[in-house]
Write a structure and sequence with these properties.
Length: 380
Amino acid sequence: KKKKKKTRRRRKKKKKRKSRHKMTDSKKAKEQMAADKQAFVAIFPSLVDEIVTDIETDYPDFDKGAVAWVKEMLDYTCMGGKMNRGLSVLTTFRHLAGDRAVTEDEVKKAQILGWCIEWLQAFFLVADDIMDGSHTRRGQPCWFRKENVGLISINDSFLIESCIYKFLKKHFRSDEYYIDLIELLHETTFQTELGQLLDLITAPPGQVVFPNFTIAKHTCIVKYKTAFYSFYLPVAMAMLMAGIKNDVAHNNAKDILLEMGIFFQVQDDYLDCYGDPETIGKVGTDIQDNKCGWLIVQALGMLDKESDQRKILEENYAKDNDDCVKKVKAVYKELDLEKLYKEYEEASYTKLMGMIDEKAGDLPKGIFIDFAAKIYKREK
């Protein structure tokens, strides 16, 4: 009996030590993330200044008012949001470096690559807001809604994208992975634009085409429009920085991260309808905007074409009217889509953990677990 008691005490002590270590590790990770974000934000003004200085130096006869426009536009469109995509380059590189201390030069390069992703997203969002006729972005009027901007913002979106390649040329031209970075960004941009095209033609403005709203179509839109640039791109950039060009490693990482990206967008679709507007920072409008989202796709798949609930959806979806939105949400409630989502979330998380075990290979599993931890059961 005494031996058993001692064994139990030892086990309890071990558990307490493990728990303390976990809490300490978690606290250190949060502190590192906070420090990384602060440093990341701090270099933004210098990148804008680089672009302005390059224009003034390379094109001394260029109009000063137009230079001032570029600066204002970059400040307005490229800063903001959670910046998770950009920060993930450095986080991933730290994992790949292992126990080795990351140098100041490596940190700076990872930060610049992170901002390349943030500027790539800004390029997409400026154009996307015009196409969708949106009103706000990150709590302020969309750039094209600003006085005297309008459709000039189309050209501004092109300028934002061009800046990315100026950064790469200035900071990475002498690195052996320079061409790999350029090709990766070109390919990712193309993939994202394909996704945007599919999104637009699946739900044309002013038309509700429910036969287009299938789970296969939704998955394809999400994969190309969101998952490649939001999840695979930051990790691929860090891998190139670390000298990892192995196709197998990249493809395995891509498989895991694209699956994660699809999971992330389904969460977004769910939060658009069920999330707290104060928490997520916006009022969801997927129903009014005729989005081919996960909720409407699931609802249509559960209903007979002649059912009353299907007719309610057909009559009320994509209408910018509060009563219509309420009727659509009432059908969602009758179908218990909240419960279906919770089941999907658990199943997807289990699937992701299995994929990480199976496909991570020589890559640190922490890369993928960090991503999963950020999005699992998120509320915004």
